[in-house]
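Input structure tokens:
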């Protein structure tokens, strides 16, 4: 049974640092909006669901957060202030440029006596399941519930004037466009500035996601793609995606 987003948030406690993060985000957005800068929130990284409260096993997906982290880099190039919300241990902006590097070798010794302090606080929302490690003596019986999508309250209640763009990944090409349009009709995410209304889902196939995407609106769709030569030269589809979105956002 799928619960509503209200039920989900009522049942699961908020992160311990929620109030602190809310204040930091309000200050960040206020500063940049007053300065005339555009602000983008990029959510990135795959989904993991622990099967026990004392987690030994979990359900995961393949996403490493590449598209989100790379897109954040290109939004920065276009002058946006970026809020990057990502899954822990997924890719962060610019980190891919240092794969294989030894970070300690990149540091320089400072002569001052200041010592850096790094603090962290993490919380986790658990799926319903066993408290302790699931027994391996026989085939496990696992019951999963779908986490409710937050696109509906996001576009209707939280940021109704924001330009909200979602992604649709499929493995069956015959379902790609129809499922993207179903998402548009279901969640109604749109942008309405000066009479311009945009409702967009970026659809892509698992096998060709790094070379081609389809920008799907309520009425039409069009393809953004790279040639094999462009891929070999290190060009990235996220550059085309972000450029296209920025052009629509600034109209």
């Amino acid at each position: 049974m799928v619960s509503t987003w209200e039920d989900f948030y009522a049942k699961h406690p908020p992160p311990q640092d929620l109030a602190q993060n809310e204040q930091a985000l309000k200050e960040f957005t206020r500063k940049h909006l007053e300065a005339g800068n555009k602000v983008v929130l990029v959510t990135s990284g795959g989904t993991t669901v622990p099967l026990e409260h004392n987690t030994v096993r979990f359900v995961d997906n393949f996403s490493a957060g590449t598209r989100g982290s790379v897109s954040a880099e290109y939004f920065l190039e276009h002058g946006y202030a970026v809020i990057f919300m990502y899954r822990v241990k997924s890719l962060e902006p610019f980190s891919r440029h240092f794969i294989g590097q030894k970070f300690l070798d990149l540091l320089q010794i400072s002569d001052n006596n200041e010592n850096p302090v790094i603090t962290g606080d993490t919380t986790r929302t658990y799926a319903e399941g066993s408290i302790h490690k699931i027994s391996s003596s026989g085939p496990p019986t696992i019951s999963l519930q779908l986490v409710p999508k937050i696109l509906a309250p996001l576009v209707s209640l939280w940021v109704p004037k924001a330009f909200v763009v979602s992604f649709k990944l499929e493995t069956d090409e015959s379902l790609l466009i129809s499922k993207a349009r179903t998402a548009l009709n279901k969640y109604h995410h749109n942008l309405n500035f000066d009479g311009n209304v945009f409702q967009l889902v970026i659809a892509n196939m698992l096998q060709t996601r790094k070379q081609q995407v389809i920008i799907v609106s309520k009425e039409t769709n069009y393809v953004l793609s790279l040639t094999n030569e462009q891929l070999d030269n290190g060009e990235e589809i996220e550059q085309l995606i972000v450029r296209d979105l920025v052009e629509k956002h600034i109209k």
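Helices lie at 5-11, 18-34, 66-77, 103-106, 151-158, 173-187, 228-232, 237-249. Residues 12-99 form a domain with the Rossmann fold fold (CATH 3.40.50.10300).
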